[in-house]
Design goal:
Blueprint lengths: L1 E6 L6 H10 L4 E3 L2 E3 L13 E3 L2 H9 L3 E7 L2 E6 H6 L5 E5 L2 H10 L4 E6 L3 H11 L4 H14 L8 E4 L3 H13 L9 H12 L3
Parallel strand pairs: 1-7, 1-8, 2-7, 3-4, 8-9
Antiparallel strand pairs: 3-6, 5-6
């Protein structure tokens, strides 16, 4: 069983990429996370997330039910051991988690494949968050502040993908998952340009 972890700042497009990769791959499963945040209109309980109360989530923490969990943007998120176990028959399991979660998954399974998703640049990330239309400006500013810190964590990951052109990003992800891949596929100058766009907003 291969664990494939997608991570990156909020708004980088992880969810869209996960759905496309799952749809275009054979025998890959999606690990559905638990969360205490409110369900969006487009989301389905049990498919996108397991939506639970904070008390339910904390009870699961006490029972040591999570492979990884974290409090992110005032809400809890976590991946249960049960979710991983029941999908072991698949060729691989894709997890969509935050930076903290990715680190915990690596501790649980050192052979896990960690993939960091870059947005094209800071202003595009900001635009995507506002276009969601389901958060306050204050909430979005908090996410952007966290993103400025998270973007520096890319060096901890095995591979990086720039989510600029969706089709190209999907193709690159499929290639990484089906082979050993190599970090050098993304030129360092492109990464540096993205990091610079974030530092300009300090």
């Amino acid at each position: 069983m291969k664990l494939i972890v997608f991570s990156g700042p909020s708004g980088c497009g992880k969810t869209t990429l996960v759905k496309r990769v799952i749809a275009e791959s054979d025998n890959l499963a999606f690990s559905v996370s638990f969360t205490t945040r409110k369900k969006r209109d487009s989301e389905i309980d049990g498919k996108d997330y397991y939506f639970v109360t904070e008390d339910e989530f904390k009870h699961m923490i006490k029972k040591r039910a999570f492979v990884e969990w974290a409090q992110v943007h005032e809400h809890y998120y976590g991946t249960s051991f049960h979710e991983i176990e029941k999908k072991k028959t698949q060729n691989g399991i894709i997890l969509d988690v935050d930076i903290q979660g990715a680190r915990q998954i690596k501790e649980y399974e050192p052979k896990a494949q960690l993939i960091f998703i870059f947005p094209p640049e800071f202003q595009e990330l900001k635009k995507r968050l506002f276009l969601r239309g389901d958060e306050t400006e204050e909430s979005i500013e908090k996410r952007l502040a966290v993103a400025k810190k998270e973007i520096q964590s890319y060096a901890e990951f095995d591979f990086v993908i720039i989510n600029d052109r969706l089709e190209e990003a999907v193709d690159n992800l499929l290639a990484l998952i089906s082979s050993s891949g190599c970090r050098g596929e993304v030129p360092q100058e492109k990464i540096e340009a993205i990091l610079k766009s974030f530092s300009k907003e300090e």
